[in-house]
């Protein structure tokens, strides 16, 4: 969750509501009180949503899967204008990633591919920026890890040589810290 947390810290001005009730109310407001849409997004029945709205049941007592979907759905559309503005600025100015992590890669037999702690600062390729923000909206840490690895991979190869970025298979593990910022 370090990459996701770093992106949220940089590109969102506040976090989602802390309590399940607050999250439920935020989702209900987002759907303008439409219990059918809320039920569809949470994967529960409309009647269950109506009970939650009336206070006959407590959202806190829901299944862990439902609470997980609730958090995911609220995060997906949290501060859409702030995130869109940050994405636009990142596209215009560029995005830089700085990290200290164990970086390993797949390599030819007889060479070392053991991960070593490295401090790297690289620019995120412009074509990856929309994917970074999409993964942020979806809360997809695995996708963000893959994109961060692609962003730092130029450190390990020289363009025009036999070993290119796709052949190296860069992996980031044991992330000590990671930060994102606009270029320049």
UniProtKB/TrEMBL annotation:
InterPro entries: Cro/C1-type_HTH, HTH_Fis, Tpg. Residues 27-51 form the DNA binding HTH domain. Pfam families: HTH_8. Coiled coil: none annotated. This is DNA binding HTH domain-containing protein.
């Amino acid at each position: 969750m370090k990459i996701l947390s770093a992106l949220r810290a940089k590109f969102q001005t506040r976090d989602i509501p802390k309590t399940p009730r607050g999250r439920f109310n935020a989702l209900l407001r987002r759907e303008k009180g439409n219990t059918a849409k809320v039920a569809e997004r949470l994967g529960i029945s409309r009647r269950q949503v109506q009970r939650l709205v009336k206070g006959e049941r407590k959202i806190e007592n829901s299944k862990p899967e439902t609470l997980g979907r609730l958090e995911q759905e609220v995060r997906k559309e949290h501060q859409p204008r702030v995130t869109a503005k940050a994405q636009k600025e990142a596209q215009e100015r560029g995005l830089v990633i700085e990290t200290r992590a164990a970086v390993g890669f797949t390599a030819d037999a007889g060479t070392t591919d053991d991960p070593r702690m490295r401090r790297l600062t690289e620019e995120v390729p412009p074509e990856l920026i929309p994917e970074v923000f999409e993964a942020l909206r979806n809360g997809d840490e695995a996708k963000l890890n893959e994109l961060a690895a692609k962003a730092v991979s130029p450190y390990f190869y020289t363009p025009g040589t036999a070993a290119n970025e796709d052949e190296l298979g860069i992996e980031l593990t044991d992330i000590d810290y990671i930060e994102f910022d606009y270029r320049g």
